[in-house]
Amino acid sequence: MDVYVSTSSAGGGLQMLVAGVVKSITAESAQRAALGAGAIVMDVLSVDDGREIHEKINTLRFLRPDMILLAGGTDGGDKTHVLEMSEVIAVAKPRPRFGATFRLPVVYAGNKDAREDIKRILSDDFFDVRIVDNIRPQIEVEKVEPARNAILELFMEHVMAHAPGYEKLMKLVSTDIMPTPAAEGLMIRTFAEMKKVNVIGVGMGGATTNVYSVFDGRFLRTVSANLGMSYSIGNVLKEAGLENVKRWIPLDLTDDEIMGIVYNKMIRPTTIPMSLEDLVVEHAVARESIRMAFNHHKYLARELKGVKRERTISDIFEEVKAEETYIDLRRVDYIIGTGGLLSRAPRRAQSMIILADAFQPIGFTYIMQDSVFMIPHLGVLSKIYREIALEIFEKECLVPLGTLVAAAGVGSLGEKVADITIEYSEQEKERVELTFGSVVRIPIPQYKEVVVTVEPTKKFDFGQGYGRRVRKRVRGGVVGVVIDGRGRPLYVPQDPRERRKLLVSWFKALELYPGDFLTKLS
User: Fold this and answer.
1) CA angle centred on 82, ends 80 and 88, rounded to 5°
2) pLDDT tens digits, 439-494
3) Domain with residues 7-176, CATH architecture
4) Is 445 helix (H, G, I), strand (E, B) or coil?
């Protein structure tokens, strides 16, 4: 054996607490750094978070994190507030989750002028302070890599060191063990960088949902700690609301029956759906879990706060939102899904439509899923052999589901959205008139490419602007090319009868479930 690599989610993974001065500036940057290192962020403390000092102390003592990341202040700026936060940590004397006799690691990534004071304040036997470059050396600059690297090093030294069999495992591996989410994110980042594309990825677990994005070279990972498909499925229902889950279910089920299916899954997390009704309900909850996790992700995927923006003449005529995410759903090249519910879906079309409904990309997007839960391991391998990891990732790991061609815009049911031409060759062409509220599946195999020309009406946009013609060469997949005329935001009727009829038409068009089951629903 030439190479052996490993990832770890031992003890529930790396659990961190983040502290900063201003919640929307240094604390937010520190949160991005911790999430990028594969951590679950238990809480974010800041001077302006509205909590009294005693409440912060109680939080620190109660949570018992594996590590704390402390940031605050620009280099050469005021150091008063970051020192105040360090004093709160010193007074609380939080104990690490594992190894109560060990010192709690604290990564300091704030104002460099405060380093000696931080060492003095956190100098006793309770803390192991690691100093790294400032996350926000200037208000216009975010520098997260040094903090991420320090977090990963400390994860090995303090968290993994307490895992059973750690010493034996370290003798076998060819490179450092990584937290599973960090390794998963590294592979998605490697794929995006080497292919020079924009990617959104999602990892659905039993207790958490991880969302990854690489946009114009910017990588971000977020974790929604209580949005999962087994242990946390009840919380997904609570956070999304029953009505939002019901909008995806065209079944004659009462509210109590839907809640019964969800809560049975929560108390028996290792079970699989026993009926098609159970499966439809799980898929409805999955859509909402990804949707909420993606909303959380977009909140952190935004331009740096606190930066003074130079206004231009166009700002007079256009409202510019400082809070807006930089993720542009018209420019998503790939969506990649992983996790048991997606990877083990009985039909591949189910995974594709769950991802399409949750993310709602616009224009042309290629959708793939992990078939063998290999992404984290390939992420570690990419640190040693980047090209080999990418080749395995594309050829052995991912299942190409197909291309989604989706319209943005709102119309009336049955209204014409676009004329679409699929060119198989110069001689063979197929024409489709897409209407609002419909979905069309063209079964094109994964090894074949076709040219798709879209001529939308003025009310609809396929990624190049409303009413603008788009012509692209696209790949097929195990599902094929799916043409989505349901609009953005995706149109789901409020009336239960109308909604049921429309949902069943989508399910039939994509052959999501067995024909006899869908016939009963008609």
Assistant:
1) 105
2) 999 999 998 999 999 999 999 999 999 999 999 999 999 999 999 999 999 999 99
3) 3-Layer(aba) Sandwich (3.40)
4) coil
